[in-house]
Design goal:
This protein is α/β, with parallel strands linked by helices. The chain has 13 helices and 11 strands. The protein folds into 2 domains: 8-179, Rossmann fold (3-Layer(aba) Sandwich), CATH 3.40.50; 182-214 and 242-366, Dehydroquinate synthase-like, alpha domain. Helices cover 47% and strands 19% of the residues. The strands form 3 sheets. A 7-stranded mixed sheet has the order 1-2-9-6-5-3-4, sandwiched between helices. It has a two-stranded antiparallel ribbon with strand order 7-8. Strands 10-11 form a two-stranded antiparallel ribbon. The longest helix has 21 residues, at 219-239. The chain is globular. 46% of the residues are buried. The structure holds glycine. The site of glycine has 5 residues, from loops.
Length: 370
């Protein structure tokens, strides 16, 4: 099927869809040719933000034009603030202006915000047009571009309005990670390590050996780590695309992570930074609940420790974080569910009632040594 690829190729097959994820350096310059694997050329809308587009937009547009795609571009302001119903409405106008019909793809070139927003537009415009993902942040490459979660924010909740709408094709160019700023890169690396902890013991061991190469963004190892992460995510969504149960293991570190983000009005932590803290604290909780032995916890902590947790902001208290957790608890109409590792490469969902224990664990982050 189609021209051979020098890099890695992963097929994601769920009960309803199958799509390919291609991972190769310099892939963006071949977007036009590779898109033919999924669709015959025609009209398309490229959605990106000003920052990403100024770097990669021309290469992508040129390769699309060379393969006879007729592409219009819609650029948004970078950042979570654009991921709204109003932002989507503007993009529907752009879809109409670009003359899209139900077979014309929306191409998302950017990080998580672009993928979520463009994906939401693709899922809903004309009841769904093909979605092509060109993720340019590490977080988007290893998480949000695969699995079909698309969404916009509501003033009362992040990702509150959305759908599961799988892409038709995902093209990942690890070369773009070289120019990512360090903070963004490390935040994404937290999610890479997450897969090793919850799902893939071999990958975890490899990361233990090669964490220096990961952090140095060594070309060969980056591509390998992104591919291993995508394979891990694919295995999870293949088992449970609609998050009935098993897919929730991907939320390891997210219970406290989300509460930290919400308690700081989404302005202090990058998502991956909050998830890193959440994972470290979940490991502590797992030990307190006797789910995890000290030796294994030590291995996880030492790998996560390579990323260094962001210090808490002034004035953040355990009470404020617990408030946000209580809000989650109400939303779930019951216990707080934590994803806790029980060994390397495996995690389970554990309801936790003891809010004092949780507060104690949060304190260890807010008052280290206290
Ligand atoms: N980012 C979590 C998921 O895709 O389920």
């Amino acid at each position: 099927m189609g021209p051979p690829l020098k890099g890695r190729e992963i097929e994601v097959t769920t009960g309803t869809f199958a799509y390919r994820v291609l991972i190769e350096e310099d892939l963006l310059a071949e977007t036009g040719r590779l898109l033919r694997l999924a669709l015959p050329p025609g009209r398309a809308l490229l959605i990106s933000d000003h920052n990403v587009f100024s770097r990669y937009g021309n290469a992508v547009l040129q390769s699309l034009a060379a393969e006879k795609w007729q592409v219009k571009t819609a650029l948004i302001k970078p950042g979570e603030g654009s991921k709204t119903v109003t932002g989507a409405k503007r993009l529907y106008e752009a879809c109409i202006d670009a003359g899209l019909d139900r077979t014309s793809p929306v191409i998302a070139l950017g990080g998580g915000v672009i993928g979520d927003l463009a994906g939401f537009v693709a899922a809903t415009f004309m009841r769904g047009v093909p979605l092509i993902m060109l993720p340019t942040s590490l977080l988007a490459q290893v998480d949000s571009s695969v699995g079909g979660k698309v969404a916009v924010n509501h003033p009362r909740g992040k990702n509150m309005i959305g759908a599961i709408y799988p892409p038709r094709l995902v093209l990942i160019d690890p070369l773009v990670l070289k120019t990512l700023n360090n903070r963004q890169f490390r935040a994404g690396a937290a999610e890479v390590i997450k897969y090793g902890i919850i799902e893939d013991e071999t990958f975890f061991t490899r990361l233990e050996e090669k964490s220096d190469r990961l952090l140095a963004r060594d070309s060969g190892f980056l591509a390998e780590a992104v591919a291993a992460s995508v394979r891990s995510k694919a295995r999870v969504v293949e088992k449970d695309e609609y998050e009935q149960d098993y897919r929730r293991i991907l939320n390891f570190g997210h219970t406290i992570g989300h509460a930290l983000e919400a308690a700081t009005a989404y302005r202090y932590y990058l998502h991956g930074e909050a998830v890193l803290v959440g994972m470290v604290l979940a490991v502590k909780l797992a030990q307190k609940l006797s789910c995890l032995d000290a030796g294994t916890a030590g291995r996880i902590n030492s790998l996560l420790g390579r990323l260094r947790m962001k210090k808490p902001p002034q004035g953040l208290t355990a009470g404020k974080v617990i408030d946000k957790l209580e809000h989650d608890k109400k939303r779930l109409r019951g216990d707080l569910i934590f994803v806790l590792p029980d060994r390397i490469g495996s995690a389970m969902m554990v309801p936790v009632k003891d809010m004092e224990m949780i507060a104690g664990v949060i304190e260890t982050y807010l008052e280290p040594g206290g």
